[in-house]
Each structure stands twice: as structure tokens, then as C-alpha cells.
Amino acid sequence: MHGERLFFNEEERISFIQTTDRAENQKTGTFCSLLHYTGCNFTEAMKFTPQQVDFDAKVIAFPGPHHSQFSRTIPVPDSFLDLLDEVHGIRHQRAGLQAGERVWPLSKEGLHKQVRRVIAEAGIPEGPHAVPKGIRHGFFVHALRRRVMITRLQKWMGHSFPEYTAQYVADLLRQAPELLGDERADAERMWSIDSGHSFQS
Predict the structure, then answer these.
(1) Selecting from 3.40.50.12500, 1.10.443.10, 1.10.357.140, 2.60.40.3450, what CATH number does the domain 10-160 have?
(2) Residue spans per domain, the chain
(3) Which long-range contacts (CB under 8 A, 24 or more apart) does 114-121 make?
(4) I need a labelling partner for 161 at 20 to 30 A (CA). Which of 27, 83, 170, 176 fits?
(5) pTM for the predicted model, two decimal places
């Protein structure tokens, strides 16, 4: 429905990732963490394999906009890479026959149900945002709040065209115009450092 929030807000993102850390099933926790830290879509997470983890570059790789072989990389925290290796033995799997096998070989319905359970345990209220796709939208919104360049965000999200990312931003801003922030504060950050001028009245 128009006007309803479709993304996790900051408090919900924090609650969600903290809940994944306490998940009784560690493999459910790592799946949820992959969604949280990369903003990938659910199908991409389902198809995830050990060969997509680059421990040296500290990135997770996904197919690019045109489904080319792992041309889209997303930096992730060291702690998440360590957790993946601890729970799934990713380094060992990368060196063997399991390199191209799915890390989470469950059905879409089963994985979806597990993620929804974590969302509920995180205390996230019911609504159109309280679904796995809300995690991806929340990743996008979080990046906007942190002033990530839109071209970089386009790559991370796997959008084929910049127009799609721009429309994504426009749709989210209609839901939450406060994401624009304060225009005058943005201008002050832009000019005060190199000019020494203050915008204070």
C-alpha cells in the first residue's frame, strides 16, 4: 500500500543483526547475516557458494547486472568472513569439490521461513517491511544515510541501469522523506572545510 514503509529502519537493522548473532541455528544466522551485510536479493543468497568468498580482498562476489561471472563485489566486515569460515568451513570448501555447491542447500520456502522467524524474534513489528526483502531495502537506505556514492550503491545492489537506482531512491524518499536529511547541513559540510566560511547566522 502506498505510503507504507518497505525497509528496515536503523533500529530494526541493529536488532535483526544482533538476533542473528544469537540464533540457535548458526547456519540460519549466517544466511541472515549475508542478507544484512551485502543487500543481496533472496535468490542470490540461496545460490551462494564458497567460491564467492574472497578472503584476501575481503569481499563477497555476485554475478553482475548481466549475470556475468562474479563481476560484482561487496566489501564485508572481517568478523562476517570469520563467521562464515567458522560455521561452514568456507576455506576448506573453496579448495575442494564443494567450491561450487550451495552453502545453504534448503528450499526457498524453508529458508524464507527461517528468516521470517529471526525477524519476529528481533521484535520487528508486522508490516510490509517485515519480510526478507525489507532487509535488502534497509541495506539500501542505510547506505544512503551514510552518503555512499550512488554509482557505488548501484553496483552493490546489482542494478543494470542508473535510472533504476534513481527510481529506487525516489520511491524510498516518498516513503521516508527524512532520509534526505537537512539541506543546509549538507551545504555546510560541502563548503566550510575548503573555504573556512560558516553558515551559522
Answers:
(1) 1.10.443.10
(2) 10-160
(3) 114/25, 114/28, 114/31, 114/32, 115/28, 115/31, 115/32, 115/35, 117/28, 118/16, 118/19, 118/20, 118/23, 118/28, 118/29, 118/32, 119/16, 121/19
(4) 176
(5) 0.86
